[in-house]
Design brief:
The protein is an alpha/beta fold. The chain folds into two domains: 208 residues, no CATH class; 36 residues, no CATH class. The protein has six helices and twelve strands. The strands form four sheets. It has a six-stranded parallel β-sheet with strand order 8-7-11-9-12-10. The protein has a two-stranded antiparallel ribbon with strand order 1-2. Helix 2 packs parallel to helix 4. The longest helix is centred in the last third of the chain and has 16 residues. The protein is globular. Bound molecules: zinc ion. The site of zinc ion (ZN) has 7 residues, from loops. The site of zinc ion has 7 residues, from loops.
Length: 258
Amino acid sequence: MPNEIESTTIAGTRVNSNVQGAQNAFAGFKIDSSDFLDSIEGRTLCDKCHRSRKFFCYKCYLPMPPLEGRIPSVELPIHIDIVKHPQEIDGKSTATHGPILAPNSISMCTYPDLPDSSRSILVFPSDDAEEAEVFMERVKKENSGTFPYDRIIFVDSTWNQTYRIVHDERIADLPKIKLSGIESLFWRYQRGNPTTYLATIEAVYHVCRIYHGVFISEPYRGEYDNLLFFFYYMFHKIRKLYDPKSLRAYATRPHLRE
Ligand SMILES: [Zn+2]
């Protein structure tokens, strides 16, 4: 349900959905400057598939030559698998940011292919799913402080497609976790979706933050914030291009208006 939770604490970070304005939506995040992206004109050809792209190839998960060596590289504390539906429009999904910004930590596959799920958990808000933080605290206690899984699986797809994928018998019985009460900063209006319906890259980010809070004894110093590098850039780009008051996404997210 949208806006039912006014504020919540996520892995030590207070997410205050009502007073958090657009300008400080990313306050405290350590995200590299993406200003240079504005100076990139036109498109170049992907080294691998030779299709014409602007910033990155969303088929090959590679940055375009003008971005090589200039975008951040993120190492995550646990391996992430993202499963996408073959009909999903790659260019619109934030999931493709993952393997581009964290190539060693995030793998993508296209259903009906599925990743090795022998020691995996699945992110999906089913009735039997546990809140991510509750689940991690519980398994930590039960396993002498360690996380007994190697990988966390996300599904990047529309709701109906996702429902079908998570009921595939190869992954249907995996332990499931969910993220509640975190409001999305996604700029694209999603009809019928509550404001807590996170973009895939946001969901990956928040699960890693929660994992860090539970399993890593070091304080969090922004290590995974650059996962939102393109997301942050697009967020501000869209806000500059459109008057926030007329952008439908903001109608359901009044705190993002100036
Ligand atoms: Zn390509």
